[in-house]
Amino acid sequence: MEVKDTVISAFLIGKVVAPADRACTMMDDHDEPGPIDTSVLTKQPRHRSTLIREEGYSPVQFTEHGRKLNRWQCEHPAVLDLLRRAGFYYVSRLRRLQLDQSLLGALVERWRRETQSFHLRHGEMSIILMDVAVITGLPVDGGAVTGGGSYQWAELCGLLLGVVPEDIRGGEIKIDWLYQQFHDIPLDAPPAIVRATARAYILFQIGCSLFPNPSGNRVHLKWLPHLEDFDLCGALAWGAAALAHLYRALGNACIRGKVECCCFGTLVQIWAWDHLHIGRPEVVGSQPELVDMPLGCRWNTRLAFRDNVRTSDIEFYRDQLDQQLESQIIWRPYDDAVLETLPPFCLAGSQVWRSRTTLVCFHIIELHHPDRVLRQFGLLQHIPELVLAIPRINSRGRADEDWAAYHASYIERWNDRLVDIAEVTPGTDPDPIRAATVYMQWYWTITRRWISRPVQRPPLAYQPRGHVERVLVDIVQRSHYTIRRVLPDISGGGVLATLSQVADQMEAVLETLPTLPHYVPPGPADYGGASTSGHAPVYSPPMPSSPIGEPPYADVTDPAPAPVPQDPARAGDIVYFRRRRLSRASRPVGDLGAF
A Pfam family for this UniProt protein (predicted)? Predict the structure, then answer.
């Protein structure tokens, strides 16, 4: 029987482990960060998380030339019109951020190229096509960004830029040359100059931020042929190509011995601010109006960095992520209310957001697996299938390679991207708590469960200090589970509101504990003199303390929740409405709420 089947069977039949056996297993559990089952994270010996406890370990440094990019604010009306046609207008409105190296460094220690996801305490999360579209406005649906073959680079520059740079090396030109040559053209510039400037600005965006390379100050001319016809350029999936490049960069950086990650760092940082509880600054003053802009532009303003931001303290971020509560994760920051505020261009490719497909960017092929992070779509998470391993090749010594021909089979899969759309599997338990429990039982065996150095490591499992404490915790767990189960069947606003408030109070108590055993409803309670040493289950995953989301097929009618008081510090932020847990009037099972 496979591991997945064993976990599910153990859950269904209420598998019992002797207290002594559980105590021994838990002792091993505390000492072993995982994975216990190596069928998923097969590259753990090469992963940088194995080196953190060693002396001399250096975190990865992220490279993005955001300051250069922010220096060139393109506002020429005719150029902006061409950027719209080419698909680069919205990302041009996104100001690049000063990167929080410690936050990004802590995240890359949790990135796994085997699954294309971050392995966090309560499950996998990832940057997916939806995030690229919503945050940047880059098109995620369209033709593959590929090509290759032999070009006369000087001739190509003369044809499409109108001028030939003196320093062309290996098909690359200096980024600064583009700025110096094109950043200040007159309003009445002739059409040829306007077209050349638009191409130069797109190349500048590519080299500074979207597809940076380790050279630090150069951009390859392989992108230029795609910029000849602006309408054909706009029909390409530049967002999917940027995500492929990002996956490759993160996958390389998470390997031991790597010191640099050249990628679209602003995208990673905004994604982290949107989904996680740490590292996020506060907006000073009013939110910028998002008129014809992607959602990432709401950070185009003054920011204040408080105690949850430690840009020079990676160990702080490691510890916070190791101890993260489920309530601190924002699984779905881009709910329907947020999406309705975005320009149509950001939503144009929404049909591919859940596509299990290939991502193509010249020589780079990476896999997109939204089925592993269905909670980011408000769906229940099942135990996902293994990710197919594909060869990861580089372009060294292959300057004349025709990548469209070389990767024809992968490009064909991209062309069929609407064929395989991730859905909740039919066998997933429709009860959100039980579904999350089954998933977490499996996940806790296959993941790297903590990253911190041993002296920093938080306790993995709650251990009651005596019989009375065990009884109290069990009562709270039982009561919390029972109330959540009956809420959908209760009529009467007063009773429903009262029980919801009691459940929230219990949940707040349970979440203060380091971690709790997953709660599977047993038979009649037995509060005899059982030993507390084996109270925790075999692997003691973090308990799914609240429903993750209601499955689309659940036959449940939820009463509308009462308005939640808004945190004044976040007033005007269209994504985050911080919950005040103890003042909520109701939260029925499956309600995701407004984040």
Answer: PMD
Identify the three-state secondary structure at position 249.
Answer: helix
Global pTM value = 0.77
d(CA 68, CA 178): 11
Please state, in angstroms and rounded to a whole number, the distance separating the CA atoms of residues 32 and 287.
45
Q: What is the pLDDT of residue 517?
A: 44
Rounded-to-integer distance, Cα 145 and Cα 359, Å: 9
In the predicted model, what is the mean pLDDT of the chain? 81
Which residue, among 147, 169, 145, 144, has the nearest Cα to 157 in the 3D structure? 169
Query: Is the pLDDT score of 537 beyond 60?
Result: no
Distance CA 337, CA 375 (A): 17
Q: How many residues does the chain have?
A: 595
Among 27-36, 315-324, 357-366, 452-461, whose mean pLDDT is lowest? 452-461
320's tokens: 């916070």
pLDDT at position 233 is 98
How many C-beta atoms lie closer than 10 Å to residue 230's C-beta? 19
Instruction: Dump strand ranges (E) for 286-389.
Output: 303-304, 357-361, 364-368
d(CA 253, CA 262): 9
Report the C-alpha gap between 264 and 244 in whole angstroms: 11
Residue 301 CA to residue 578 CA, distance in Å, equals 20
Residue-range domain boundaries for the chain: 3-41+426-583, 61-373+388-415
Pair 355, 571: CB distance under 8 Å:
no
Residue type, 76: H
Report helix angle 175-182 to 191-205, nearest 10. 150
Instruction: Give me the residues paired with residue 62 across strands.
Output: 261
Q: How far is residue 395's CA from residue 216's CA, in Å, rounded to a whole number?
A: 18
Read off φ and ψ for residue 511, nearest 5 degrees. Answer: -75, -15
Q: Which residues of 134-160 are buried (b: 16+ CB within 10 A; e: fewer)?
A: bbbbbbbbbbbbbebeebebeebbeeb
Q: Please report which helix (H) or strand (E) contains residue 174, including its range.
A: strand 172-174
Element housing 403 (H / E): helix 403-406
User: What phi and psi values does residue 271 have, to the nearest 5 degrees?
Assistant: -60, -45
Q: In this structure, is the dihedral angle defined by the CA atoms of residues 91, 93, 98 and 104, taken in order, positive or negative?
A: negative
Angle at 286 between CA 282 and CA 288, to 5 degrees: 95
- Residue 497 to residues 290, 565, 591: CA-CA distances in angstroms? 36, 16, 14
Find where tokens 């190296």 sit.
101
H/E element, 218? strand 218-220
**Tokens at 250, concatenated:** 């993160």
pLDDT tier at 286 (50, 70, 90 boundaries)?
confident
In the block, residue with structure tokens 């896999």: 367
What type of residue sits at position 512?
T
What pLDDT, on a 0 to 100 scale, did the predictor assign at position 512?
60
Answer whether 221's CB lies under 8 Å from 159's CB.
no
Q: What distance, in Å, lies between the first and last C-alpha atoms of the chain? A: 40
Q: Residue 137, by phi and psi: left (phi above 0), alpha (psi -120 to 50) or beta?
A: left
pLDDT of residue 25: 40
Phi/psi-derived region of residue 540, left when phi > 0, alpha when psi is between -120 and 50, beta in every other case: left
- DSSP class of residue 207 equals I
Lowest mean pLDDT among 116-120, 288-292, 328-332: 288-292
> Which pLDDT band, with edges at 50, 70 and 90, does 19 fall under?
very low
